[in-house]
Design goal:
The complex is a heterodimer of chains A (497) and B (501).
Chain A: H1 10-17, H2 19-22, H3 27-53, H4 62-81, H5 89-111, H6 114-117, H7 125-147, H8 158-174, H9 177-180, E1 181-182, E2 185-186, E3 189-191, E4 195-197, H10 199-217, H11 219-224, E5 226-229, E6 232-235, H12 237-256, H13 260-278, H14 281-304, H15 310-320, H16 331-343, H17 366-399, H18 403-427, H19 445-466
Antiparallel strand pairs in A: 1-2, 3-4, 5-6
Helix pairs in contact in A: 3-4, 3-5, 4-5, 4-7, 5-7, 5-17, 7-19, 8-10, 8-12, 10-12, 10-13, 10-18, 10-19, 12-13, 13-14, 13-18, 14-15, 16-17, 17-18, 17-19, 18-19
Chain B: H1 2-29, H2 31-35, H3 41-47, E1 55-57, E2 60-67, E3 74-77, H4 85-88, H5 99-103, H6 105-109, H7 116-125, E4 133-136, H8 140-151, E5 159-165, E6 172-178, H9 191-203, H10 212-215, H11 225-233, E7 242-244, E8 248-249, E9 258-259, E10 270-272, H12 273-279, H13 282-292, H14 294-304, E11 312-313, E12 321-322, H15 340-347, H16 357-368, E13 373-374, E14 379-383, E15 390-393, E16 398-400, H17 405-421, E17 433-441, E18 450-458, E19 464-473, H18 479-496
Parallel strand pairs in B: 1-4
Antiparallel strand pairs in B: 1-2, 2-3, 4-14, 5-6, 5-19, 7-10, 8-9, 11-12, 13-16, 14-15, 17-18, 18-19
Helix pairs in contact in B: 8-18, 11-13, 11-14, 11-17, 12-17, 13-15
The chains are: A mainly alpha (497), B alpha+beta (501).
């Protein structure tokens, strides 16, 4: 790319010039935003009760307060362990998580007989379970912050994590269906009656660490030692082998587990980390061609051959015309669209809609259920919050000085954004519907924990990015005036002219 | 690596932009289509959130909503049970609604534009007053009589219908179709229960869901002679004109002779028109019809309301329960010339002539009301949820004038003679002038005949009070006499219930 073609350098330099401002920890800003988020969650709970119970119980603030205590705990941990972490991440995630708990509680209230509604305890039902999961997930995130004092330290376990990732992805596939299958998808490991985890959710994190580490190590080779074919520089097979292998195994397994959403997620994750690492747009193009080619091939194969592709064909058919079979195959998608349409611009108000009609409203269709009650304006606000988290993650990646951190944070942030796109696009008929959790909103511990771990990593990377280089680890000295120093401490970053 | 990271940021922005645009498309542009989709169960739950208004007959609620603790807040119940089923219809959760429930749905549900003021008031007071109330014209006593008499008819007929109208206004006093059904299980919130009840009714060979009073057409038999007599009176024949009769008569081009129901009926070669009506003389009317010609009979029938396809019975303005058109059928040859055999049979209400009980009652009513036929209606008044404001009050409307007042007077005399001296004696009510015409209609060679009676009751001053049509399907011998008896009972009840008018 020529210099003339690059856009004005102001956004790039702005981040670097604001080194002085970045050096401030901004923890108090985080605290105020967090309190604001919890106030919103409490207000949401009150409105739900007013609509569903015709009265607001004296305990309406209990879920919000419980969550508030949990998040405040994490806030304190961050103050000590990651004092320079991005102050917007925790409040944004806390708001989503809180609304998720509030909405699940709203579903519980709607399902309960009218007489029992007022007495529904804070920790009862799905909402209560999600509250407990949140507590566990936040403790896990705090633990990760405590163990991983520098994000570079996990690169030491990259191969172990890569292996673990593959094992986690494959585990449900090899386990007998009785303990791994639910609603036709083999994604679970069931422990006893009520406890189950989705190992794939954690595999996402592990594999990304491996991708990031491997690609950073082979970065020079990948961008330099290449063969030119059709005007595109291809790296040598042996340089790309392991990462392609790991990715291929995961995607194949997922395709045969019929978890199309996650395989799409892994594909996007892989292509984007490859692109960030090599800085070659050709990877994006190849990725897109492969993706659309593969999708079309799977569609055609599904129509003619069937087998493992039949599921894909079915989903594509439903996507093209959900109203062709509105009471059976297209039922879910149709009901999701009707919920969104009923919500309209302003929504029915928290507790004012009928999201209970939606199948899987606590999981895949939670965004449609919320859309019915919060309307287009509410959903837009939620999308903005997600976008904020993703862009803050990318910003941490931009600002951090080591390549591993850049790739890790960039990959994680993009993966989070892609996941939101896949599920929200799916339920709103923008793309074919594939089963995915909506990060921080959907019911379920695995997804919540994995995504909180992801946030912990982003917090850690952003802490590293914003920490003044002169400061000793763990301490937060007042920012020193003077020229920005971060370039001195960027040994692995290749500064290109 | 910062350049690709920035581009990834842009990609995420674009992806979220697509989501945003798509959500706008769904939640703004397509919102109304999705909101009102047939597959959207929310509309229904919202429907059941507000208390639906009552439907009342004679001051009693015959359809009302009870609060429940379920997801659907209000359960529709029908305290009147099967007796009012064909008028009220039902408001089921998962099936199509029927009857007045369907016709007045917007008003009962409170979503009608007329009730916008009440909804606004509710917004400010915080109350939820529910939907509006529909007051029917039905007289409780007449409806009771029609339902009970029809159900316990003395000839064992399983199917039939009765309808009574106030001849002066067209207000329906009673409307019963037999067999009937209990609408309560159909309105059950347990949709499987409702569906099971519906399927059972739908598969019942006696077709209880059918509204026989409004939508079933059967050969009217001799009741159709009133139409032929009206045509005759307008073509120079009077009550006392001697018309050809006889015990048997064969139309010019057909081999099958027309006979009377009994050898004792008009065996003499000529009888007066009055006697022909009183005794129900088939040979007389067959010859009279051939003499008048097909066009005269078809035209007279049309003027009485035959062939009208768009008549509805509900409010007087528009809407209401649909009715079937009564037909005279093809009486003529293909070239438009008279077919005497067809004409002779049609003149005594056979061959292709088909009539609804509603049409029978309307013929009797127009005779009683000096030749003026009023548009029948079922909805007397629409009351606001709090019953203070009336949004609609029926104002009787003339539908048509089938015969002149003078011809109506002659027809009245002849019909009164039927009840006083002829075949309709069982309809008589002491102290009142009752007129009518019986009918026995062959349906198929191997099936029992249908029994008909159309008639009216006038008080001492000659004011018409009620006009009735009773039809007993495949009632067999004695069917029309039983129909006359039931009609008399219904009119007696209508007389005893001045509040119903």
């Amino acid at each position: 790319m020529t210099v003339a073609a690059t856009p004005a350098p102001s956004p790039a330099t702005a981040g670097e010039q604001s080194g002085v401002r970045l050096a401030r920890s901004r923890r108090n800003a985080e605290l105020s935003l967090l309190l604001l988020a919890m106030a919103l969650v409490a207000a949401y709970g009150a409105t739900v009760e007013a609509n569903l119970l015709d009265t607001v119980t004296p305990d309406f603030w209990m879920p919000a307060a419980t969550l508030g205590v949990v998040f405040l705990g994490l806030h304190v941990v961050i103050r000590f362990l990651a004092p320079f972490a991005d102050p917007a991440l925790l409040p944004a995630v806390a708001l989503l998580n809180g609304l998720g708990v509030g909405f699940l509680r709203r579903i519980d209230l709607g399902d309960a007989p009218v007489a029992d509604r007022e007495g529904l305890a804070t920790f009862a039902g799905q909402g209560g379970r999600q509250l407990a999961w949140t507590l566990g997930a936040v403790i896990l995130a705090a633990g990760l912050l405590a163990i991983m004092r520098d994000h570079r330290s996990i690169s030491r376990y990259a191969y172990t994590l890569g292996l673990a990732g593959i094992v986690l992805v494959m585990l449900p596939a090899v386990l007998p269906p009785s303990i791994s299958e639910r609603n036709g998808a083999k994604l679970w490991i069931q422990f006893g009656e009520s406890f189950s985890i989705q190992p794939g959710e954690f595999a996402k994190l592990a594999l990304l660490v491996f991708f990031a580490y491997y690609l950073v190590r082979k970065r020079e080779v990948l961008s330099l030692a290449s063969r030119r074919f059709l005007g595109i520089d291809f790296p040598r097979g042996r340089d790309l082998g392991p990462v392609v292998g790991v990715w291929l195994i995961s995607v194949l397994v997922l395709v045969f587990e019929k978890d199309l959403g996650t395989s799409l997620l892994y594909f996007g994750m892989f292509v984007v980390t490859l692109y960030i690492a090599t800085e070659r747009v050709s990877w994006l193009l190849i990725g897109l061609v492969l993706f659309f080619g593969g999708a079309y091939l799977a569609y055609v194969l599904g129509e003619t051959v069937g087998g493992p592709f039949a599921n894909f064909y079915l989903r594509a058919e439903i996507w093209l015309d959900p109203f062709a079979d509105p009471t059976d195959k297209g039922y879910q998608l149709v009901q999701g669209l009707l919920a969104l349409g009923t919500g309209g611009l302003f929504g029915a108000g928290p507790g004012g809609g009928q999201p209970g009609i939606l199948p899987e409203v606590q999981n895949d269709f939670i965004f449609a259920g919320i859309g019915e009650e919060l309307g287009l304006f509410g959903l837009s606000a939620l999308l903005v919050v997600y976008l904020l988290i993703v862009e803050r993650g990318l910003r941490a990646a931009l600002a951090v000085r080591d390549s591993f951190g850049k790739l890790l944070a960039g990959g994680l942030a993009f993966t989070l954004g892609l996941q939101v796109f896949v599920i929200v696009g799916g339920i709103s008929k923008l793309i074919p519907l594939t089963g995915q959790t909506t990060p921080f909103l959907s019911a379920g511990g695995s997804s919540l924990m994995a995504n909180w771990l992801l946030i912990a990593v982003l917090l850690r990377v952003s802490d590293g990015a914003r920490r003044p280089v002169t400061g000793a680890a763990g301490k937060a000295p007042r920012p020193a005036a003077g020229p920005p120093e971060q370039l001195h401490g960027a040994p692995t970053e290749v500064i290109k002219p | 690596m910062n350049a690709p990271l920035r581009r990834v940021g842009v990609v995420v922005m674009v992806l979220f932009g697509l989501l945003f645009v798509n959500l706008n498309w769904i939640q703004a542009y397509k919102a109304d289509e999705y909101r009102t989709s047939d597959y959207n169960g929310r509309v229904q739950v919202a429907d059941y959130k507000r208390k639906r208004g009552n439907i009342e007959a004679g001051g009693t609620a015959v359809a009302t909503s009870k609060e429940t603790t379920g997801t659907l807040k209000f359960l529709r119940t029908y305290p009147g049970g099967a007796e009012y089923a064909h008028v009220l219809g039902y408001k089921p959760v998962n099936l199509a609604d029927q009857g007045i429930e369907r016709v007045e749905n917007d008003f009962l549900a409170g979503t009608s534009d007329q009730l916008i003021g009440d909804r606004l008031k509710d917004m400010f007071t915080g109350d939820d007053s529910g939907g509006g109330n529909v007051l029917l014209t039905l007289s409780k006593k007449a409806q009771d009589a029609a339902y009970n008499q029809l159900r316990n008819n003395q000839v064992g007929a399983k199917k039939g219908a009765a309808i009574a109208i106030d001849p002066r206004t067209g207000a329906v006093q009673a409307l019963v179709s037999m067999p009937s059904f209990d609408p309560n299980p159909l309105a059950s919130h347990t949709s499987s229960e409702a569906a099971a009840a519906f399927n059972k009714l739908e598969q019942d060979p006696d077709e209880p869901l059918k509204n026989r009073a409004l939508s079933e057409t059967l050969p009217p038999g001799s009741t159709f002679k009133i139409v032929v007599a009206a045509a005759a009176l307008e073509n120079g024949i009077t009550k006392t004109t001697q018309i050809p009769a006889g015990s048997s008569w064969t139309p010019p081009t057909s081999g099958s002779p027309i006979r009377n129901a009994d050898a004792s009926i008009c065996p003499e070669p000529k009888v007066t028109l009055l006697a022909a009506v009183t005794e129900s003389c088939n040979t007389g009317f067959a010859q009279l019809g051939v003499q008048l010609g097909a066009n005269a009979i078809k035209e007279k029938a049309r003027q009485f309301g035959f062939e009208q396809e768009d008549l509805t019975v509900g409010e007087l303005g528009e809407g209401g329960l649909p009715t079937a058109a009564s037909r005279t059928g093809t009486i003529q040859n293909a070239d438009g010339g008279d077919d005497p055999a067809a004409l002779a049979q049609s003149s005594i209400g056979q061959r292709d002539v088909r009539m609804t009980p509603l049409e029978g009652a309307m013929i009797a009513a127009s005779v009683a009301n000096n030749g003026s036929q009023m548009r029948p209606y079922l909805v007397r008044q629409l009351l606001a949820p709090d019953r203070t404001t009336s949004y609609y009050t029926a104002k009787a409307r003339e539908l048509r004038q089938p015969v002149s007042s003078q011809v109506a007077g002659d027809l009245r005399d002849m019909m009164v003679s039927v009840v006083q001296n002829g075949t309709g004696k069982r309809a008589a009510i002491s102290g009142y002038t009752v007129g009518g015409k019986t009918g026995t209609a062959q349906s198929a060679p191997d099936r029992p005949d249908h029994g008909w009676f159309i008639g009216f009751a006038l008080d001492k001053n000659g004011t018409p009070i009620s006009a009735v049509c009773v039809m007993l399907e495949q009632a067999g011998s004695g069917g029309s006499a039983e129909a006359a008896r039931i009609a008399g009972q219904i009119m007696r009840a209508a007389i005893a219930d001045p509040g119903g008018r």
